[in-house]
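Re: weekly structure request thread

Next one in the queue (281 aa):
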Amino acid sequence: MAAQQLEAVGLQPGETLSSYGRTIYPIGSDPHRQLLVERRERRSFAERVTDTRRAATLPDGRAQHLVERFPPTRGSTGTGVGPLYSGEGRQDLLAMVYIVVATESPGLLPDVGDLVWVAEMGEDTALDTACAELDHEARRLLDRKPVALWSAIEKALAAAERSTDWKIRQEALRHAALLRTMMSPREGYVGELYVEGLPVTGVRQILDALLIVAEDGHAPGTRVRLLDKHHEGRTATIIGAGWGSSGPPVGYLVWLDGAKTPLSARADQLVVLAGQESLPR
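Done, posted below.
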């Protein structure tokens, strides 16, 4: 059945349905990001342990780790895709989302002792496994409407400010101040007021790429072509993943080349173009 399906879509050499395989670091036209990713792959064991120790520190250490692990980039020239994994305040927002998870679903938090032990292995993926439930819930929270997400963050920070642990109180106060700054009006170049807002899209994309490491799928930035009858043969860029209760993405948000708005597609409606992974394993 699978062979018949693959034959029916006319796959070219190196192509695959997006229901299969994995793309973590899509190849693109950003040499700086590629340099950062390759440099990270060449870390010594001591450097890896230092990084995983930091990543085991919730919420800020893990947030910083993930922001650095999946650096910002842009869509390829001519596609119409703008910044990816981007936005001012990504680390702060991700840390705040972890605080929301700790408040709303404390049972999803990994045991601190387990994290400390796993961190000594120096393996990102081992720590990812320990934090899997936390990271999945953080990604689900980011699908909430902006107002609902903002409200959840405010409530979680207010609760943390009442903690008996002074470190938690201090961090909550710091994040509350950052949240107010993010949501405060700013003055533009010609004097107009605007609100920068929360960098939700960039943080979603970071968590999409992270979850794909374990679950398979194709991270934002991956180039695809569509199979549905309305857009058959047109090429596009994945800019987000849609998740079910478990397993790889069930669908993707894609940006057709030259389009003005994104569209949603099921995983079996997309073909991943050849040579998309910049770090083949």
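The radius of gyration is 20 Å. The first strand starts at residue 16 and ends at 17.
Next request, please.
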